[in-house]
């Protein structure tokens, strides 16, 4: 299969890289702009108010491990999506779809990255390596099969994000609270569907038909917008109920301050959904949030509320 692709004339040889440097090619191939998603491994230790420098070092190793593992999966996903990416108005510029790197080289790079990621996971602990291995297996299943199953693709993405939380918890020996699990599951599910809405919007703007290789149709957009809102608003409700819980009472001096954080989160959620509805959101809401100034302000305010709730006694 790989040899046929390389001989078909679709791919250029390694010495013809459209004036791209090797470093820039691999930055695009590894999707380094997605690395901040892996900071999720730090969430459990902050949520448990158990931050310390030895654990911070361990989590840094876990973070790097997930960067390599996730990049490996991105490359595998690009390989299986190759015909579809070449016809996509934006994804056709990716190194593999653009013919800047051959499938054989991409897959070899993917396997090397996966080995490095699992080795770093083992360095952080056998339990972490086990979580990373499970992440890789599920992610490969997603790239090959699960992303073509209606709604199951979004649920799988939810689990893949959750694996980062699980790895962080295992690495530091802290338990994930049911509140954090429920909140993150609803939020990740909502964001996964927002991503699908944005992908459909891009195709509608470009005058293209139903997304190839995906279980969704352009006519599904209203349904997906409602389901995305349902997931995001469920997360808002969970965060609103959390200050009255025994867990919050044990961790925070003034947990009711967290209601202010929930208002900021509600604003951010409504704005994200509105941008997706107006076709003003890129196809990845997490990447958008990382580069959006309003999202930065909301995140800083939420963090400030968390610190105030922990330190101030009212």
What are the defining features of this structure?
314 residues; mainly alpha; Tetracycline Repressor, domain 2; 2 domains; 69% helix; globular; disordered N terminus
What can you tell me about this protein's structure?
- It comes from Azospirillum cavernae.
- The chain crosses the membrane at residues 56-76, 96-120, 127-145, 165-194, 223-242, 257-274, 294-312.
- Keywords: Cell membrane, Membrane, Transmembrane, Transmembrane helix.
- This is Decaprenyl-phosphate phosphoribosyltransferase.
- The protein has 314 residues and is mostly helical.
- The chain folds into 2 domains: 1-176, Tetracycline Repressor, domain 2, CATH 1.10.357.140; 191-314, no CATH class.
- The protein contains 14 helices and no strands.
- The chain has helices spanning 2-7, 22-30, 43-47, 53-80, 82-86, 103-124, 126-144, 152-172, 178-205, 221-241, 246-251, 258-277, 285-291, 293-311.
- Helix 4 runs antiparallel to helix 6 (103-124), helix 4 (53-80) runs antiparallel to helix 8 (152-172) and helix 6 runs antiparallel to helix 7.
- The N and C termini lie far apart (66 Å).
- 40% of the residues are buried.
- Residues 1-18 have low confidence and may be disordered.
